[in-house]
DNA sequence: CACTTGACCTGTCCGC
DNA sequence: TGCGGACAGGTCAAGT
């Protein structure tokens, strides 16, 4: 669910809504997954919202930043003056904006609020000095290069076709498992890994090092293609993903292979999508046209 | 090092 | 209807 396209969708909205707001108070209702001193961000004004893989970074003008990872079921929802349209609220926000799954409320100036909800409590938020982001966050430090050109990362941190080729040739683990390894490349999770492999006509179980140059090229293209489509559709609201304005994404209606067990493959019209487990994760593929 | 499994959580769905 | 169990997917720690 929340993979690169979902987190990017959140980032784009948070940028619109949060920049310029000043943090007036942090209400910690469940603090087990909150690290750092919340007082350090009070008074700071939001200057930028960035994304690194599946993590978000909110920069404040007082030299502190918040690193946020929403994992599977985290939600960041904004209410306040920058919301132009009527305030929609998806029913995926289980108990409403201030229900039992609301763990943190960031109170902003001008009556703004940013809610952090998370049914499964896997998501985390960490406060660090902006200049120490990469030092203090293990997650950010170990993160691999970004598969899409983006403004937050310097060119040397972009996953080029050459880098991708080198990574794929470096290991024998199944190609799907490699795609989802955040240290090798950032942002790809289960949905987009399944879809990219289908698009590139590659069997997810293949040993990475067994891919031919042409297959690697196709897969590299396919990754860019599915991630961009995910962003275009506003992410996939399969489980609990909602955007900061409280609405849902559309990609779940456009998946290529993910969650299609038993359906006939739309490309070859022969294969029936199979579901297997690969490294513990649900894996979907067409046994006829994915070689 | 390579690779898999379990833990972290809770809601949902399926079968009996 | 109720209950137990499997399942969902992101990441890290621990195990083989």
Could you explain the architecture of this structure?
The protein is α+β, with helices and mostly antiparallel strands. It has two domains: 4-141, Alpha-Beta Barrel (N-terminal domain of MutM-like DNA repair proteins), CATH 3.20.190; 161-285, Helicase, Ruva Protein, domain 3, CATH 1.10.8.50. The protein has helices at residues 4-18, 133-136, 138-142, 161-169, 175-179, 190-199, 213-232; strands at residues 23-28, 34-35, 46-52, 55-60, 64-69, 74-79, 102-108, 113-118, 124-129, 274-278, 281-285. Strands 2-9-5-4-3 form a five-stranded mixed beta sheet, with helices on one face. A four-stranded antiparallel beta sheet has the order 1-7-8-6, with helices on one face. Strands 10-11 form a two-stranded antiparallel sheet. Strand 7 (102-108) and strand 8 (113-118) form a beta hairpin. The two termini are 26 Å apart. 44% of the residues are buried. The mean pLDDT is 93. The protein binds a DNA duplex (16 and 16 nucleotides) through residues 1-3, 54, 69-73, 94, 101, 118-123, 138-139, 171-173, 177, 180, 182, 189-191, 238-240, 279-282.
């Amino acid at each position: 669910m929340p993979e690169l396209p979902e987190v990017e969708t959140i980032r784009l909205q948070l940028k619109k809504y949060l920049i310029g707001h000043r943090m007036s108070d942090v209400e910690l209702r469940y603090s087990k997954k909150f690290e750092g001193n919340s007082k350090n961000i009070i008074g700071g004004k939001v200057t930028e919202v960035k994304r690194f893989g599946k993590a978000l970074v909110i920069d404040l003008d007082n030299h502190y930043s918040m690193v946020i990872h929403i994992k599977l079921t985290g939600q960041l929802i904004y209410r306040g003056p920058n919301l132009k349209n009527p305030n929609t609220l998806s029913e995926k926000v289980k108990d409403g904006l201030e229900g039992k799954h609301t763990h943190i409320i960031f109170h902003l100036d001008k009556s703004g609020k940013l809610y952090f909800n998370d049914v499964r409590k896997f998501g985390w938020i960490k406060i660090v000095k902006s200049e120490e982001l990469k030092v203090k966050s293990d997650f950010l430090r170990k993160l691999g290069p970004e598969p899409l050109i983006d403004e937050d990362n310097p060119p040397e941190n972009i996953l080029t076709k050459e880098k991708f080729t080198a990574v794929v040739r470096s290991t024998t683990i199944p190609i799907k498992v490699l795609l989802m390894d955040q240290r090798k490349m950032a942002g790809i999770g289960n949905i987009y890994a399944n879809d990219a492999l289908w698009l590139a006509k590659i069997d997810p179980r293949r040993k990475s090092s067994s891919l031919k140059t042409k297959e690697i090229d196709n897969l590299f293209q396919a990754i860019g293609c599915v991630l961009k489509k995910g962003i275009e559709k506003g992410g996939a609201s399969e489980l609990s993903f909602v955007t900061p304005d409280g609405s849902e994404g559309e990609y779940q209606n456009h998946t290529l292979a993910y969650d299609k067990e038993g359906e006939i493959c739309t490309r070859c019209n022969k294969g029936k999508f199979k579901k297997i487990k690969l490294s513990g994760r649900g894996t979907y593929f067409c046994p006829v046209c994915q070689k």
